[in-house]
Amino acid sequence: MILKNVLGVFLIGVGILLSLPGVPGQGVLTILLGLIMIDIPGKRPIEARIIKRPTVLAAANNLRARYGKPPLELD
């Protein structure tokens, strides 16, 4: 559990670096993956706000389609 949280925090840090202008990569998606891994109270609203971004939702649905899962449906 500790290792999972440490990896989650690491992914959030990498995602923040990737979100900087001029740095290529999926920064917001990496932050979302890090948030999914860590165990903190109140993380669901933050995850929902991130996944509602059109580019993040499209990337998540592309990954889900690749593995034969149905696309995410938002409220």
Could you explain the architecture of this structure?
This protein is mostly helical. The protein has one domain (2-66). It contains four helices and no strands. The protein has helices spanning 2-19, 27-37, 43-51, 54-66. The chain is globular, with a radius of gyration of 13 Å.
Short description:
The chain is mainly alpha-helical. The protein has helices at 2-19, 27-37, 43-51, 54-66. The relative contact order is 0.14.
Give the tags.
75 residues; globular
Rg over C-alpha atoms, rounded to the nearest angstrom:
13 Å
Task: Tell me the total number of β-strands.
Answer: 0
Q: Which whole number gives the mean pLDDT?
A: 90
Describe the main β-sheet briefly: none
Count of DSSP H/I helices: 4
Q: Helix-strand pattern, N to C?
A: HHHH
Give the helix/strand class: mainly alpha
Counting structural domains, the number is: 1
Give the strand content.
under 5%
Anisotropy-based shape: globular
In helices, the fraction of residues equals 55-70%
Q: Determine the N-to-C terminus distance.
A: 31 Å
Poorly predicted runs are: none
